[in-house]
Automatic annotation (TrEMBL):
This is ArsR family transcriptional regulator. Keywords: DNA-binding, Transcription, Transcription regulation. One of its GO terms (molecular function) is DNA binding. The lineage of its organism: Bacteria, Bacillati, Cyanobacteriota, Cyanophyceae, Nostocales. CDD domains: HTH_ARSR (cd00090). It comes from the Bacteria. Residues 14-108 form the HTH arsR-type domain. Pfam families: HTH_5. SMART domains: HTH_ARSR.
């Protein structure tokens, strides 16, 4: 690409490998229950039973989704006695969730 005065732009093209990894990541987020879990964890820590009760889905389904979210490094956990509490992995995950939510809440300016 070139600027208006025909100088080459110094831009970095996304590599095919990284593009594939990003596509898989965004595809992974295409599950409503995973997004609902992330929306709750964006607010505070939850244990499986509280997530299940709040979302009105089985604890087994919540546990399955949390395993997937952990595998993608979107959530972490900590143990307190016999209970396990889940939270977002880091601020990157929170910012990603917030940015998408804000984008979808914007009114179309077109």
């Amino acid at each position: 690409m070139f600027t208006k005065d025909l100088q080459p732009l110094s831009i970095q093209v996304l590599s095919s490998e990284k593009a594939q990894r990003m596509a898989e990541f965004f595809s992974f987020l295409g599950d409503a229950n995973r997004l609902r879990i992330l929306s709750l964890l964006a607010e505070k820590e939850f244990c499986v039973s509280d997530l299940a009760a709040t979302l009105d889905i089985s604890e087994s389904a919540v546990s399955h989704q949390l395993r997937n979210l952990r595998a993608m490094r979107l959530v972490n956990y900590r143990k307190q006695g016999r209970r396990v509490f889940y939270r977002l992995h880091d601020n990157h995950v929170l910012h990603l969730y917030q940015a998408v939510a804000e984008h979808l809440d914007e009114k179309d300016e077109g």
